[in-house]
Amino acid sequence: MQWHAFESPVHDSQRMFRQLLSAMSEPGTLAAVSDITVRHILPPAGSAVGAAGWATLLTLCDLETSVWIAPELNTGGLADALTFHTGARMAPSAAEADFALVLPATLSGQAPAFREGSDTHPDRSTTLVVVLAELEADGPWCLSGPGIADVRNLDVGQGGEALMTRLAANRARFPRGLDAILTCEERLTAVPRSTCITQVQIEEGVSCMLP
Amino acid sequence: MNSVDRREGPPADGYNFAYLDEQTKRMIRRGLLKAVAIPGYQVPFGGREMPMPYGWGTGGMQLTASVLGQDDVLKVIDQGADDTTNAVSIRAFFERVAGVATTTTTTEADVIQTRHRIPEQPLRQGQILIFQVPIPEPLRFIEPSEVETRLMHALEEYGVMHVKLYEDIARHGHIATTYAYPVKVDGRYVTDPSPIPKFDNPKLHMAESLMLFGAGREKRLYAIPPYTRVESLDFEDHPFEVQQWDVPCAICGARDTFLDEVITDDQGGRMFVCSDTDYCQSRAEEVA
């Protein structure tokens, strides 16, 4: 079993962080974790997490953070590989997680109760790292708010309703809320809690309208 | 003309890239992502001791160290000038410990660390402006307790800030606050834009660049993402106004910049010049 990490931990994680920072500050823009960002990044074989998700975890996790991994995603020794490379602890429950590696389906139905922070310390909240099967610009989800000049559209694929509905609910609880880094293979984007999310019907050709 | 200085040879031995250890950088990076997600909210972070005293920009430096990459071009300004002690020292520091290229030209820089000014040249998308902040809490001079101010932010209890501005009007006839003028970010958090002159406040609104703020002594960081609404607090009958000057810059003739008063002799002689040295120089070159 091979557990690959960054070839150059200092510079690869810096470039990866900058990509995350610009994704978080310009929600909905797609970026790719190419060879320019991180060379030869390989997630543990047999795990469903892609290059972008794996590089995100390697960049942000260390022995001060606790990570919760959705059971369906914890395959191919993913948790062991992450602990081995970063020293991150596995959170015993979602409510104690700094980072949570989830599928969009994790947020449907009886979703785990992630930390949303408090009104005085909204930063003490879980950051979701979502593993998606599809992630495209120009979809039915219309984003606006800080970091977006006008509006930006996003497609998170089939079964993304639960995820986007959960993230849309952030706005009502602001400043408490969940921030999400959406990943799909080598692509990533971010949807912080400050983003306003609405769904538009693209079949009818209705263009994205500001709420 | 290439205005970027590329340093010869590797960075100084014995230090991690950009001085801070990776563990500290990760902690600050996690804080920065939260700061961007909650615009204007002050995120506490485990500030480290830097090889310079508090008050010289240790907060800004820790942010710069966490953000900076080996391919970045760095610019450092102090009150708009590239050639003052603070700016020269911090630039030399990162040249040594990170081996990065530096510049004084605003348009060439990827990361700009600043003390108390925003460059006159509008920043573009992708550039990061990092502010050095002495006191990050705008309510601190009204309420000394951190527990109380944190609660005031949580409850959006900002009436007292307007009382302070009103007292200005009652005493002076106008809002006499000229720097560190409080702003409201995205309609939620009242935030200290650091001691920039209020002349620069309009540049915060819907800016194209990302703006990060670091306070080393107080161990707080916060952010204003690009394209974010930033309003300066005011009253309907006393709208927010910026400073104006009767004379143009004595060097470049600009009428739309922030001017510093320079005393030239002991006979009352004085001149007004742009505080942004790079902007002034590039304009003076154009004219010449």
Number of E-type strands of chain B: 13
Poorly predicted regions of chain A are none
Helix content of chain B: 25-40%
Largest sheet of chain B: 8 strands, mixed
Task: Give the largest chain-chain interface (CB within 8 Å).
Answer: A-B, 39 and 43 residues
Number of domains of chain A: 1
CATH architecture of chain A: 3-Layer(aba) Sandwich
- Cα-to-Cα separation, first versus last residue of chain B: 16 Å
Which structural class fits the helix and strand makeup of chain B? alpha/beta
Q: What is the count of DSSP helices of chain A, taking H or I runs of 4+ residues?
A: 5
Radius of gyration of chain B: 19 Å
SSE order of chain A in H/E notation? HEHEHEEEEEHHEEE
Any idea how many domains of chain B? 2
CATH class of chain A: Alpha Beta
**How does CATH name the architecture of the largest domain in chain B?**
3-Layer(aba) Sandwich
Q: Report the average pLDDT across residues of chain A.
A: 92
Strands of chain A, total number: 10
What is CATH's topology name of the largest domain in chain B?
Rossmann fold
Q: What are the segments of chain B in which pLDDT stays under 50 over at least 5 consecutive residues? A: none
Please state the oligomeric state of the protein chains shown: heterodimer
Keywords (chain A): Lyase
Protein name (chain A): Phosphonate C-P lyase system protein PhnH
GO molecular function (chain A): lyase activity
Family (chain B): Belongs to the PhnJ family.
